[in-house]
Structure formats: structure tokens, C-alpha cells
Amino acid sequence: MNGAPPGWFARLKLDWYLVLILAVAVLASVLPARGDFAAGFGWFTKAAIALVFFLHGARLSREAVIGGLTHWRLHLLVLGSTFGLFPLLCLGLVALPGWITPAPLAAGIVFLGCLPSTIQSSIVFVGIARGNVPAAVAAASASNLLGVFLTPLLVTMLLQAQGGVSGASVGVIVLQLLAPFVAGQLLRPRIGAWVAAQSKVLSKVDRGSILLVVYGAFSGAVVEGVWTRLDGLDIARMVLLSVVLLGALLVITACLARALGFNKADEIAIVFCGSKKSLASGAPMAAALFSPAVAGVALIPLMIFHQVQLMACAAIAQRYAARADTHADSG
Questions:
Q1: Beta-carbon contacts of residue 60 (< 8 Å; ≥ 6 apart)
Q2: Which of 151, 131, 126, 135 has the alpha carbon at shortest distance from 277?
Q3: Distance between CA 22 and CA 182 in Å, rounded?
Q4: Which of 23, 132, 165, 180 could cross-link 269 (Cys pair, CB 3.0–4.6 Å)?
Q5: What is the dihedral sign for C-alpha 125, 127, 130, 131?
Q6: Is the pLDDT reported for residue 11 higher than 70?
Q7: Cα separation, 2 vs 17, whole angstroms
Q8: pLDDT tens for residues 36-51?
Q9: Distance (Å, rounded) from C-alpha 287 to C-alpha 210?
Q10: Which backbone phi and psi does 88 adopt, to 5 degrees?
Q11: Would you state the pLDDT for residue 166?
Q12: Cα(123)–Cα(116) distance, rounded to whole angstroms?
């Protein structure tokens, strides 16, 4: 027990990549892309989005997804939480009075609810918590695979009435995200080993592409006057809403897992995979789904929730790891 607090505090730290993303957002607030430069940067951003989804396709192991299908009850619960319960809770937040939920962030909150789960951090936290890691790999991979289809469709259905996205453009949007993803999957037998060997370099390319997307999105929002519509109190309220939202998801997924008879290892996989949202997928999806003026604002709830989920889940994973039982096999 003496070693638990240092481990708990060691994981309760800032995600420095998120700090870099925030720095890029600040840069865009001070020096936004304008005019011809913004138009050229927009095309460059589209290429970055294609690269991100190509790398996602090349990395995702179909074997992990297919191998996990035998645990279909667990995956249905994770997917139901990710693409069903989460969007419903976000719609509930958006329906709250304006003094609770900032109106300018409403589209971003709905967008947050429609995103797939994380892969890397979900698996890492499940491993720390001594949960069912193979199930987490399969569930998170399946979430991202389906998210390429489901996220654009859900966002379109839920935000079309508010003018966030155009229903007529959903086919183009899905194609923009799906085509490079499928290309990566098709080329995986040829380039999969190389991609795995170059994972450190390619992760920098992947993350660098997301920084470009964030700069372009925030530039468009700043040019349209985002900071005349948002203030520090709005950001503080979004932090509080993120804590409440994550807490609700963690409690509901844990209770459902226990009510349905899953063992502790499976419960851990369900809790972590069913309550998280992917910044890596969300940033390029926002740029593809929304106009530049909307995309930057839509990213704010996601960036806040991302940091909240990392800090909270680090502490929760440590609590799970300290439990008395020693069996982490699936059932």
C-alpha cells in the first residue's frame, strides 16, 4: 500500500501533447490563417486528414477485431455506450439552460458524444487496472473502425437541424474519411510490418497532422469571432460538465457490467473503453465535418474532456489495480 500514492500521483499529470495542442490554439488566436494562405492551408489540412486516417487503417489489426468477436456481449455493451448512451447524455447536457451549458459549445458537445473510443490510452489503463486487455484491444479497435461510418452519420442526424453540417454532404464526408482508411487496411498486409517498425516516427507524423488540423480549425473560428462569443466562465463550465459527464459514464458502465454478470476484468475493459473519446480521431473528423468557423469551437469540449478523462482514469485504474483479487481473465 505504501507504493500506491506515488503511482497515483505520477499518473495524475498533464498530457503534454494536449498542452502543445492548446499552444497551437493560442497561436491561431493570435496569428490566424487568413486569405489565400488560409485557402492553401485548408487543402493541406485535407491531405493531413487523409494521412491520419490512412495511418489509422494501416495500424488497426483486423485480427484483433475478429478475434474479439467471440466476446460479443462485451463489445455490444462498449459500442452501445460509445455510440448510444454517450450521445444521449450529451444531448441532455445541450438541453440544459444556457446558464449551465454554454450555447456556443452545444455543437461541440454533441460532436464529442458521437466520437469513437480511444485505442492507446484505453488499452494502457485497462492494463494498469489488471483488466481484460485482449477484449479492450478488440473493443477499442472495433469502436474506431465503426466510428469512421457512425460518427459522420450520427453528427449529421443530430446536428442537421441546427445547421452544423449539411445532410447532402454526408456522402462526401464519409468518403473523405473512409477512402484513406480503407486504403490503409487494404495495404496493411504489405506495409503493416513497416508501419509497426516505424511506429515512433509515424506517431509524430500522426500527431503533427492533428496539430495542423487544430491550427486550421481554430484559425477559422477566430476569424469568425469565436472569442467574442466565449469567455473564461464558459470554459470553466465546460470543465465541470466534462467531470459530470465522465462520472455518469463511469458509474453507468460499471453498474451495467455488474448487472449483466461480467467479471471484474471484463468490467474494467467495459468501463475504460465505453467512457472515453478519441482526440486523435476527433480532431481530423471535426475539420472534415464542419466549416472552419465551427470546427474550432467544436474541438473545445473534446480537448477539455480529453484531459479530464486522462486524469480521472489514471486514478481509477490505480484503484482497480489495488483490488484484492488476482484474476484478470475474461469470462
A1: 141, 144, 145, 184, 185, 188
A2: 151
A3: 31
A4: 132
A5: positive
A6: no
A7: 30
A8: 888 888 888 878 878 8
A9: 10
A10: -65, -45
A11: 52
A12: 14
- Burial tier of 75 (Cβ tally within 10 Å: 0-12, 13-18, 19+): buried
Amino acid letter, residue 149: F
Residue reference for cell 459522420: 152
> Which tens digits make up the pLDDT trace of 301-327?
998 898 888 888 888 888 888 876 644
What nine digits make up the cell of 24? Answer: 497551437
CA distances from 47 to 43, 56, 195, 213, 289 (A): 6, 14, 19, 10, 15
Tell me the C-alpha distance between 25 and 216, whole Å: 9
